[in-house]
Structures are given as structure tokens and as C-alpha cells.
Amino acid sequence: EKITGLGLCHNGSMRSLYHPSETDFRLSNILHALSDPIRLSIVRDLARTGSRSCGTFDLPVAKSTASHHFRILREAGIIRMQPMGTQYVNSLRRTELDSRYPGLLAAILNSEDPGVQEETLGATGEGEVCREVDGSN
């Protein structure tokens, strides 16, 4: 089942999500999270487009499986999930990752997809809200 629409990562409960601090990042957790092709595609998409809500990713998995992938990325410290209305907006924690492990994210993304260059990866996506979520320009 492909994920489309807005049902994924619904934020009806407004519960607080765990995000590790930069000092709590573990290389083994980051590499594990990025070893899965679905999770790597999520990270690549965020590197290309900036912040996005969960439901805007075209993933070939069930919603529950996609939620699991977002959780693994979040708990590894790769993405930040911020509540926005009834959903979560995902952004790469590139600045923090580069501070802790300089060049790691760029090296992994560039090795897997030569079309994504450093200039594209320079956008952190942090603080940006995707237009699909709030409808503003």
C-alpha cells in the first residue's frame, strides 16, 4: 500500500516525541537507520525538498510500517518531527549531525544518489514548514 494523503503521523494526541540530543547521537544507530532503503529514501527526499509532513512521502509500504521508519529516523537523531496542526512536519537535523559527525550525511547521500549534490544538501530544512501542511506561501 502506497502512502498518500494526510493520515500518516497523525498528531491527534499531541504527545511529546523523543529526540536525542546531539551528544546522545550514536554512530551505530545512525548507520542502522540509514541502512534501510525506505528510510534512506525519506532522508534523500528531505535533503532535496526540505521539511515535509509524513503523508507527503510516496512510500511503497503500509502506514504503520512508514510510521515505524519515521520513528527509527527520529530516535537515531536524523530527523526532527515537529507538531504542526494535526500532523508532524519532518526536517533533517543536518546541522547537528554535521557537528557531531562532519560530512557523514553528505557522504552517505552522495554515495547512494550521485544526483544529490552538496549544494542541495546545504538546506537544513530546519524551521521551514512545508506548504502542504499549512497552505501558506
In short:
By secondary structure, the chain is mainly α. The protein has helices at residues 27-34, 37-49, 63-76, 94-100, 104-112, 118-121, 131-134; strands at 52-53, 79-84, 87-92.
Overall 3D shape = globular
- Helix share, percent: 40-55%
Give the termini separation. 31 Å
**Tally of DSSP helical segments:** 7
Total number of strands: 3
Q: Tell me the strand order in the biggest sheet.
A: 1-3-2
Q: What does this molecule look like?
A:
The protein is mostly helical and 137 residues long. The chain has helices at 27-34, 37-49, 63-76, 94-100, 104-112, 118-121, 131-134, and strands at residues 52-53, 79-84, 87-92. Helices cover 43% and strands 10% of the residues. It has a three-stranded antiparallel β-sheet. Helix 1 (27-34) runs antiparallel to helix 3 (63-76) and helix 2 crosses helix 3. Residues 1-7 and 114-137 have low confidence and may be disordered.
Task: Provide key terms for this protein.
three-stranded antiparallel sheet, globular, 7 helices, disordered N terminus, mainly alpha, 137 residues, 10% strand
Helix-strand blueprint:
Blueprint lengths: L26 H8 L2 H13 L2 E2 L9 H14 L2 E6 L2 E6 L1 H7 L3 H9 L5 H4 L9 H4 L3
Antiparallel strand pairs: 1-3, 2-3
